[in-house]
Structure formats: structure tokens, C-alpha cells
Model the fold of this input.
Amino acid sequence: MKNANLLIGLGLGLLIGAAVGVYITSSDEQKEEYRDKINDKVNKAKEKIKKVVNDGLEELGKAGDFINQAAQNATSRVEVD
Done:
């Protein structure tokens, strides 16, 4: 697992380094184009992350409701016996 994380980190570092190198050597017009593309991708990523978090919270709420109902059922059975 540690090796996989190390390889992922190295791969991301390589990609970021290459992107910075391309950005530095490009013209002002290209830099503006790159910034627009990056901002667009960041905004899309934020929306996807927000959706995943909201979906996870909704599922967590459903699980909590299920556990609460099961606990109430168990309590009512104990009180009857």
C-alpha cells in the first residue's frame, strides 16, 4: 500500500511538474487559455465532489434512519416480553 501511494505521489508530481514547465514556456495567450481550461476543470471537479458528498450524506441519513427504526423495534420487543 505504501508503494502504491508513493507511485501515485510520484506520478502526480511528474504531471504537475510537466504542466508547470509547459505553462512557463508558453506565450501569454496560451497561458490565458490554460488558465481558463484549468478553472473549468476545477469547477467541474468541485461540482462532482459536492454531488458525491451530498449523495454520501443522504445515504448516511438513510442508514441512520434504518438503525434508529431497528433500535426502536428491538426496544418495543423487549418492553413487550
About this structure: DSSP finds two helices and no strands in the chain. The chain has a mean pLDDT of 86.
